[in-house]
Amino acid sequence: MRQDKVVVQKYDLSCGAAALATVLNYQHGDPVTEKEIARGLIKRKEYIEHPELVRIREGFSLLDLKRYVEARGYEGIGYGKLGLKDLVENAPILTPMNFIGYNHFVVVTGVRDGTVFFADPAFGNRTMPIDAFEHAWIDNPKMGRVGFVVKRRDGQEPPNQLGANETILLPPESVLRRAVSPLSR
To answer: Is pTM beyond 0.90 here?
Structure first.
């Protein structure tokens, strides 16, 4: 369940490629691997001439991902000044995050009952309380909180195939406490 419909990254600095592979594979039915996407992204003249840029920039940018999907025949749309409601309306949507000091891309799949559901290329399916998610969601000084959506050019958008999966929710703490405590007499 944890890695259901998630392409888990196999390489350092490839969370953008793995997040994009998650959307292309499971939202659009386009079988492409993280490695294929990373190879496509690294082919830019800028990266060929200066391969160290990927490490300096801590991976690929949303603009890199946009160029890649558009070369594949999709429309890549970047949004700025987003709020939680926008994530719900546009899911699945890639968002840049900063967890414990590291920049990272995840795919938000839904929001329900105060919880954000997302596909994390470093882990698998995850949930997080809204306030914790908003704290980690990178807030750019000019663009605010941003996100990136992949759309089909023919306008025939499938419904969210990665929707919030409640099976990954842990039971409430009180249930867990009872499950692990010794039986009383």
So the answer is: no
